[in-house]
Amino acid sequence: MAHKISVTGRPTSSIQDYGKYLTFDMEEKGSPNAPRGIPFQSKAITYTVVVSLKQFNKLNIKQEEFSERRFLVQGEPCLDIPFEQCTGEIGVICMQIQEMEAKGKENKGTPKKGSRAQKQEENKTQEEPKKEEVKKQIFVPKGTRNWMSLEDIKVPETFLQFTPGIAKQKIVEESIEKNGTVDKPIIIDPETHELLDSYSRYYVAKQKKLDRVPVHY
Within 13 Å, how many C-alpha atoms sit on residue 52's CB side? Predict the structure, then answer.
């Protein structure tokens, strides 16, 4: 029988994109007290979660909001994840991921309904918003290694001396209107954060006042 593992909490790292799957880290704290007679204490462990792009998109959560949400990840431990992709101590192949409801959201003055009745009511009241959410599914351009604030990207003077062509700007504008971000990652130096390529995407993203953009090293 395969080993099972469950991890709960908020992501502790940015999302890394590897095409058909993504990875991110989560930390699970151990119990502060061990059973009597055991001289060791359980410490926090960092897990690197590997989730398919299809599973991730079903969450319908924007990239910038992902690290602020709490999740329950159920999966299997794995030792075959490439070292450079597994930044945590243990790798976890995600079989199921779901968002956990934030504490304190329930109305204390209203009696709690049965789970079936509550689910039916939610389906009715959220039917229209869900249709809109499908259009706003998170879009992670292929090749994305990280997400970065535009203010943190250093643009050489040679790029600032010219304006991208109208045709290139239009392609990027259409992607932002449709997906909420640029069509491809912006190429930067991983150490200096200096812009190396994709100035047209940087230019339009700044015109559209995007908070963060996908980058590739």
Answer: 6
Q: To 10 degrees, what angle do helices 115-125 and 127-135 make?
A: 60
Name beta bridge partners: 82: none
Kindly tell me if the per-residue pLDDT of 204 is higher than 70.
yes
Task: Name the DSSP letter for residue 31.
Answer: P
Instruction: Give the distance from CA 97 to its chain's centroid.
Output: 12
The letter for the amino acid at 28 is E
- pLDDT at site 162: 85
Residue 159 has pLDDT above 70, yes or no: yes
Under DSSP, is residue 48 helix (H, G, I), strand (E, B) or coil?
strand
E runs forming strands in the chain: 5-9, 16-17, 21-28, 45-52, 70-78, 90-100, 146-149, 186-188, 195-197, 212-216
The neighbouring-strand residues paired with 74 are: 6, 96
Contact present, 85 and 16 (Cβ < 8 Å): yes
Exposed e or buried b for every residue in 7-42, given b needs 16+ CB within 10 A? beeebebbbbbeeebbbbbbbbeeeeeeeeeeeeee
